[in-house]
Design brief:
- This protein is mostly helical and 197 residues long.
- The chain has one domain: Orthogonal Bundle (Jann2411-like fold).
- The protein is built from 6 helices and 4 strands; from the N terminus they run H-H-H-H-E-E-H-E-E-H.
- The strands form 2 sheets. The chain has a two-stranded antiparallel sheet. A two-stranded antiparallel sheet has the order 3-4.
- Strand 3 and strand 4 form a beta hairpin.
- Helix 3 packs across helix 4 and helix 3 packs parallel to helix 5.
- The chain is globular.
- The structure holds zinc ion.
- The site of zinc ion has 8 residues, from loops.
């Protein structure tokens, strides 16, 4: 079952308490290559980016990303995070910038034997376009299934971790209530107490 597959990044010890279902986890994990809370960026240099992208099947055997490609992927990642923050009620996602960024990615429709359409990246384009296309295909599919808006970025400004909000009314704000949620509550409490707002 796809739900049983391993999510998160091997050997990092990074928490993934609220994993997205199915292949949407690929988008979540891509955004979570950057860990603001604990520090660390799996796309921080071209060599590690190559290893990590290959780990999740985003690169084909022997393919590598160079520095210019790495930078484009990081820029795309942070724009994606902006969308996940928008899902969490935080304004400021730059859709125009993102739309420019994804304009070179091409997708095509393929039908399965059951008649179900599937989106997949056009393979004849560059490596960044293919990776972006692969992730966009997951985004569009998640949107069709009503799951995309449940993928959110944590509201803790020092965290911004991507999590899947499975709550009934989609009201989740934090990747981890005990850490990010509690931290926010404490600060609000202190601010109220000291009268500063
Ligand atoms: Zn958090």
């Amino acid at each position: 079952m796809s739900e049983m597959r391993e999510a998160g990044w091997r050997g990092t010890g990074w928490d993934n308490l609220k994993p997205a279902p199915g292949t949407l986890a690929l988008v979540q994990d891509f955004v979570n290559t950057r860990n603001y809370f604990r520090g660390g960026d799996l796309l921080g240099d071209a060599e590690e980016a190559t290893v990590r992208l290959a780990e999740r099947g985003l690169l084909e055997g022997g393919e590598r990303v160079g520095e210019a490609e790495r930078r484009r992927l990081v820029a795309f990642r942070e724009r994606l995070r902006g969308l996940l923050l928008a899902h969490n009620g935080v304004a400021g996602a730059d859709a125009r910038d993102l739309n420019y960024m994804v304009s070179s990615a091409a997708l095509r429709v393929r039908f399965g034997p059951d008649g179900r359409p599937d989106l997949e990246p056009v393979v004849e384009v560059g490596v960044v376009e293919r990776i972006v296309g692969r992730l966009l295909a997951e985004v569009v599919q998640a949107e069709a299934e009503g799951r995309w808006e449940r993928l959110k970025a944590c509201r803790n400004e020092g965290c911004l971790w991507a999590f899947y909000d499975a709550s009934k009314n989609r009201s989740g704000s934090w990747c981890n209530m005990d850490i990010c949620g509690a931290r926010h509550k404490m600060r609000a409490y202190r601010e109220r107490k000291s009268g500063s707002r």
